[in-house]
Write a sequence for this structure.
């Protein structure tokens, strides 16, 4: 609900008020003040014209801004679970209302103080436990909107930054400053893991490769057999001697091991 008021001074005690430029659905009223609930976001220039009993008029105007309702949104805590000494970022991203915003934080670890002007807090704590963190966002018009989130700090001695001491026998390709007994190796198992559409593509590709290989081998063997069955070449202009096939009685070039017609050994040379 928005309220608009105008104060008029003068010798007269009778005034007529006319309001223009009001946001929807506000309507003019013969009153020095009016209240309404605008439904459209934006800025309006509201003008009021005041007339006394003699007909004299005077006007004044002011700017009225209608904003979206204030919303704190969600409280982002990343990462939401940390080891003692590990940093996390706590962020709230309000919208709507009338900036600037102010922030009231609650539930933070004692080593992570919040500020009224901070929308993001970089928090590092060594206190293990579960923390229900809340923030109330206020705008210039004192509208308020809350948001909350959960932070978990693991128990243990913890570590700071990347200087953590490891005791495992991992085979990862690590680059940290670990003092454990792990060996840095290259894990290639992921390169040969297929699932879903990728597995089908790989399978069809493998089958196609095998078929092409079989066709190439078969073609090579067939070509060799055909070449071996061909008769030896003769010099140009010289008729090649022939023999008669004993099985099908067809003429076969001399020297042929098999008859091209029936595939059987040829007979004696032709007389």
């Amino acid at each position: 609900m928005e309220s608009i008021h105008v104060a008029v001074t003068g010798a007269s005690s009778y005034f007529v008020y006319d309001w223009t430029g009001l946001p929807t659905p506000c309507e003019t009223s013969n009153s020095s003040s009016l209240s309404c609930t605008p439904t459209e976001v934006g800025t309006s220039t509201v003008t009021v014209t005041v007339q006394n009993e003699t007909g004299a008029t005077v006007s004044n105007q002011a700017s009225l801004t209608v904003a979206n309702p204030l919303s704190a949104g969600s409280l982002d805590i990343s990462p939401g679970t940390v080891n003692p000494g590990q940093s996390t970022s706590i962020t709230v991203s309000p919208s709507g209302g009338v900036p600037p915003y102010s922030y009231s934080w609650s539930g933070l670890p004692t080593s992570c103080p919040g500020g009224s002007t901070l929308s993001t807090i970089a928090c590092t704590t060594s206190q293990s436990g579960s923390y229900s963190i809340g923030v109330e966002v206020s705008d210039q018009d004192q509208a308020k909107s809350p948001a909350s989130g959960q932070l978990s700090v693991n128990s243990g001695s913890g570590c700071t930054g990347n200087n953590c001491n490891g005791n495992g026998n991992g085979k990862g390709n690590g680059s940290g400053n670990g003092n454990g007994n792990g060996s840095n190796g290259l894990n290639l198992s992921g390169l040969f893991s297929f699932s879903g559409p990728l597995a089908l593509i790989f399978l069809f590709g493998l089958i196609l490769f095998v078929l092409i290989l079989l066709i190439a081998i078969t073609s090579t063997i067939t070509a060799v057999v055909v070449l071996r069955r061909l008769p030896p070449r003769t010099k140009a202009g010289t008729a090649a001697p022939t023999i008669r096939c004993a099985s099908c009685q067809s003429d076969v070039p001399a020297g042929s091991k098999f008859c091209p017609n029936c595939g059987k050994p040829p007979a004696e040379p032709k007389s």
